[in-house]
Specification:
about 300 residues, alpha+beta, 8-stranded antiparallel beta sheet, 4 helices, transmembrane helix, Peptidase M23
Length: about 300
Amino acid sequence: MKSEMKKAKTKKHKEYLSIMLIPHSQDRVRVIKISSFYLKVSLLLVTLLIFISGLIVLNIKLSGQKKSLESNIEDISRLNIEQKNMINDKANAIKSLEEREKAINAKINQFTEKYKDMAEKYLSDGSGSKTSRSGDRTERTFVDDISILKNSLDELIDESSHQNEDISGLSKIDEKLKKYISTIPTLWPASGRVSSKFGEREDPFNFSERFHAGIDIAADYGSDINAAAEGTVITAGTLPGYGKAVIVSHGHGLRTLYGHISSAVAKEGQKVKKGQLIARVGSTGRSTGPHLHFEVRINDTPVDPLKYLDKK
């Protein structure tokens, strides 16, 4: 009986944990007894609290990483859309360039054919050699055709320059056309109204019908007279009936005459540009007042200047 009580007492002592508090002073020693059950429960609760806190911290960290990943995914998605749009833009640009290149090539072919037709129609005979200025060249349609051809070439060169195309061949043709157009008398030599046209008219001196080999342009005395086309001055002096006059040769049998001038500015043998000042308006020779008598001659045959001059 005593043995059993001793075992129970020993077991009871083992259920407590004693903590002794020994002060430095002379106060009595304090003993704190903690039940082992409560201690275990407390340790378990502390461990659980630490575990839960760890889970919360981990969850917060994972949540941050998730948001970061979602943000990265959005950035990548946006970047992919931008790259896709950029690729589409580049594809459209390439397609546009290809279409422009086809259009330019088509225009080049058109121009080449038109230029060949013009060359065959106006610039060469059956053997391929250049002809003199005659036949259809006396018509304004020739000048209009040349102008249309030149305008087409200007548009083509301008469009090609934006595409960095090799247009050296076109540039040579352009120079030829510019040179040729510059020798066609399309520029009005003086400012004023046409007071007398080409052809049969009543002579102002004897009132009989007489052929008028040019046109008369009423203008103020001393006003400018400009070359209707590029050429070389072959006469700068006095001519019967015309008084003081200037004659310019434009090549291929084409000449222009400027009569009744007050004075010549250009000299014989001088090369003049289209629009260059060559004389002053006067009333010399067989004239009734200040005006310019202007003639266009092909192989010394007068033709109507209005078929050449630009339309006002």
